[in-house]
Amino acid sequence: MDIPKQVKAVIDKLKKKNFEAYIVGGCVRDFLRDVEPEDWDITTNAKPEEIQEIFPNSFYKNKFLTVTVQTDSKNPKLKEIEITTYRLETKYADKRHPSEVKFAKTIKEDLARRDFTVNAMALDMATDKKKQEIIIDPFGGQKDLKNKTIKAVGNPEERFSEDSLRMMRGVRFAIVLGKGWKIEQKTSKAIKNNSIWLQAISKERVRDEFMKIIMAERAAEGIELLRTLGLLKYIIPEIEEGYGVSQNKHHIYDCYEHSLRSLAYAAKKKFNKYVRLASLLHDVGKPRSKRGEGKDATFYGHEVIGAKMTLQILNRLKFPKKDIEKIAKLVRYHLFYYNPEEVGESSVRRLVRQVGPENTEELLQVRMSDRIGSGVPKAEPYKLRHLRYVIEKVSQDPISTKMLDVNGKDVMRILKIKPGPRVGQVLDILLGYVLKDPKKNKKEVLKKEIEKLGEINEKELASLAQQTRKERRDIEMKRDQMTKKKYWVT
Ligand code: ATP
Ligand code: MG
User: pTM for the full model?
Assistant: First the structure.
């Protein structure tokens, strides 16, 4: 992998003005493991004002000493490059100006404030073409990268008490950097000792970091790691309530493991955040609704209790209201029963109304995740495909005279007739025209057609109407056949 020319250009410009400049942080880690970084960060000893002078096309976010340079790249990862002045850990900041972050003098000081050794490396780019890049690595990041180890920079206890969110970041890096990554022993011990301090972190920051874990490919492993390190109980303790709570004869896994397996499937299928959270939470009400023990235990109403708990959990974590309602609905209706022989269209219509037509696809995905999570081999058997078909069928607009740009009143007024079968016949014939040529569905066009139909005698009108009704039924049948084909059902 090459360092993008936009990044090189920024560094060259800073160096030409006699400042130090390095590529730094997560992007060095990713560069060294040959993975394209999310973003390229640059650090320098130039002060924000000095950076801005060099790059007129930049803006300054005061709080973080970060100047954002805009480039001409079309790649979203390179459109904006962030340059941050060397800085110290906030605890060294001048106490009289708590909002101020203090500058550091050297790159080493800047690297020392970073969270993990693999994130605390800088890359010095060769200025002349033959020279190799030099890695500045005072904390053994390269070695830890090789050994796939997440290790805090400096004293882990201190580092986690400075900023407790780092504990969750550690979990995230352990699962997203790839298979075989682990958290070094001292570091994980420090997480266990300091997990309680997660409560000092704003719910929004916890939520954002939690969602990064949820959106990872190995989200379920992330949740399990959060649990074993003692962090989960300060994020969503309700999930832990299911730990060791056995189910009944229909289930081989306990509630907790079943939830994790459901999430694992949702992540494997790259389902969206709503489906992932609903898959994780769909049975969260089970421990509180469990009655009896062993193979005959029951969990009546767990979906109602679970939906309520979901509202509480997501509210606590300050999720947007819209998301909360959607996920709670998916939990509330995850249990829907469907069998083509027993459940009619009207029940499906009710389900669609309750969960919301915009949520039906996600509900089916939660159901698939639920099934696979319980150890059932097939995610989408015939029944689920058939349900998809019926949902689409009941969601389609009916082919009816309501679609027309005129109504019975128009017909009566134009033809000067009273209510009676003729009105319906005229509308049916008009619908026939519009089905053949949708462009005709305009008031002005249809009014002229109504006038013409007024001149036809009663018998002829009736037979014309009958004929178009038959055509309409044929179209409806054809549409149904095609929907069936689409979902592979008969
Ligand atoms: P990714 O962008 O892939 O999520 P990253 O390592 O680039 O991972 P960022 O959040 O983009 O993470 O932060 C960039 C760098 O800033 C990190 O690599 C790390 O050196 C430093 N950093 C970020 N957050 C913290 C923190 N809470 N404590 C200490 N250093 C941090
Ligand atoms: Mg980053």
Answer: 0.89
